[in-house]
Design a protein that fits this description.
Blueprint lengths: L1 H10 L7 E3 L1 H13 L9 E8 L5 E8 H4 L16 H11 L2 E8 L8 H5 L9 E5 L13 E7 L2 E4 L8 E3 L1
Parallel strand pairs: 1-3, 1-8, 4-5
Antiparallel strand pairs: 2-3, 2-4, 5-6, 6-7
Length: 171
């Protein structure tokens, strides 16, 4: 029923956002992403952990940084996560009772997906959301100025970036 209602509300532009995050969690996490670029010499990124509410909306509760799960994830200057790091991520999720809601990483310039972003999603399952922050996350980018992409499977992506706060709301 909530799915049908959300569809109807979406037709008139009143659907709830797909993902929400407390502003303080977002700002602290994005600030840390910027810090981990080491003076804008490399990309950085994080898994966004949280819960899915009964209405299907995802809530981001915590950033878990790629290099905390895989110390070599940022060693080349771009994000490269080894499969051996995923058991550590699942351990963190189990301990907190959270799931992976999305992921986020930074680019030096724009927030568009690179060829490697499209070819190698961090979580290669349909429905996974990937956020991209431009300018090494300087100035704490917010919805409307970030890339928001949904992996559809089979190498296909949906671009939700134009939806801004209608897709990701900071509360």
């Amino acid at each position: 029923m909530s799915s049908f209602l959300n569809t109807l509300l979406g037709w008139v532009g009143l659907a709830p956002p797909r993902i929400i995050c407390a502003r303080r969690v977002w700002e602290a996490g994005v600030h840390e992403l910027a810090r981990r670029t080491l003076g804008e010499t490399r990309e950085s990124g994080a898994y966004l952990l949280g819960r899915t509410r009964d209405n299907g909306m995802h809530e981001i509760l915590e950033f878990v940084f790629y290099d905390d799960v895989d110390p070599k994830a940022l060693a080349t200057g771009i994000v490269t996560i080894r499969e051996t790091a995923l058991p550590r991520l699942w351990e963190i999720c189990r301990a907190r009772g959270y799931g992976v809601v999305a992921d986020v990483h930074v680019h030096p310039f724009g927030y568009g997906q690179s060829a490697s972003d499209r070819a190698g999603p961090v979580m290669p399952r349909a429905g996974h959301i990937a956020f991209i922050l431009s300018n090494f996350a300087r100035d704490t980018p917010k919805p409307g100025a970030i890339g928001m992409y949904e992996f559809l499977g089979n190498g296909q992506w949906a671009d939700h970036s134009p939806r801004g706060r209608r897709f990701l709301k900071l509360a």
